[in-house]
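Limitations

Structures in this collection are predictions, not experimental determinations, and the ligand pose is part of the prediction. Treat each record accordingly. The example that follows, with adenosine-5'-triphosphate as the small molecule, is included so readers can see exactly what is and is not provided: the inputs are given verbatim, and the output is the predicted complex.
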Amino acid sequence: MKNYFSNLSPEIVHLIRMIADEADQRNLSAYLAGGIVRDMILKRKNLDLDIVIGDSTETVASAVAKKTKGKLTVYRQFKTATVLLPKGLRVDFATTRSETYAKPGAMPSVKKGSLADDLFRRDFTINAMGLCINRNQFGVLLDEFDGLRDLRQKKIRVLHKDSFSDDPTRVLRAVRFEQRFRFSIEPTTLGLLKTAVKKNFYKTASAGRYFAEFKKILDEEKPMPALKRLKALKAYGFLGEEEAADIPFLEDISQKIARLKRRKECAENYQWWFIYFLSIVAQNSEKFHKKLLEEFSFTKEQKKDILSLSQWKSILAELSDEQLSRSCVYKRLKEFSFDFVMFLRIVASSKDIVDKIDRYLLKDCRITLFINGHDLQKESGIPGKKIGFILDRVLEQKLDGTVKNKRDEWKAARLLLKQEC
Ligand code: ATP
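Predicted complex:
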């Protein structure tokens, strides 16, 4: 029997043994299942342990949380629980279940089932293996659908012919795994996938579920191959009627993003998935952008960014003016989120504009004044709104270099106050 656990750190193996003890004490079956088993076989790092248990999930999860000092969250209606461990490891517990779909794309109705049922409800054979962790069968692989064979042959294969109509978001998942692992979608599965796309698969599942899967593609280390594949499969329909994703444009952007992500000052500071998303829909109409806001859920700031897309070319044209002062660049960019400004930097074609945006992102957006509104108000007694206006003007002078120190700031502020009164 192959030991798939040898690729895990001793710490994780210890944790798995401890979870198994809790299940054994209660006479319950316990398996690692899904992506974690696939990644253990592929020797890939995965920090999410998915455990399926015969019953009493909540009891086992809370015992594990107690022993590990982890944070327990229970979702009683789904019979699942999550334990977040202090070191960032996450263990998801679920009771083995079976699922049936009343109609294509509907949320499945779920009931308790065997482990085999639980594996049968999954998307692809490579994600439908279970690895027993109970002491008496530790390491036994449950592989009813030949997932191991498909992993070795690098194939993405559905478990049955209705898989994509049951859950059309699997189209996005198939493409994601195919491109991430450089596997291929095997011919029958590809035929079923193409039929699902042709039949406008996206109309049956909720926009939110598509978006969650699409976001996972955009969060991949290298999203570009999957974005290209989706285009070749004509599978962007879930975003709306217009054709999205201009591939040559995106190729260029993806190379720039890869370079920027390697920079220490950039890597953690931006939501790269969202910058990809802006790039995918940047060339579409304003009407299309408005529709996106109705269909998918975004934060308030992201909504504003999406609506600003209709101006990106004109903003870049404004920034191309060589006479533009530093404070004018600041004023123009300040109204957008950092993600949107980074998007502008990426789509800008001239070095002069890139330099201006870099100066804003790395320096100017952080410049502050020594003086503050409180002091100014105390001195003048004029209303807050006007004080804000004066501070903005002093900051602009500082950016343009005519105000250098605290004394200069006071001098400039007093002059402005005099003009205002
Ligand atoms: P990743 O490495 O991207 O996290 P993963 O396979 O762990 O990949 P998840 O989305 O976390 O992906 O899903 C965990 C498991 O749940 C999958 O391996 C699969 O068995 C099952 N699963 C997830 N989504 C679906 C789906 N839409 N249909 C069927 N099974 C699914």
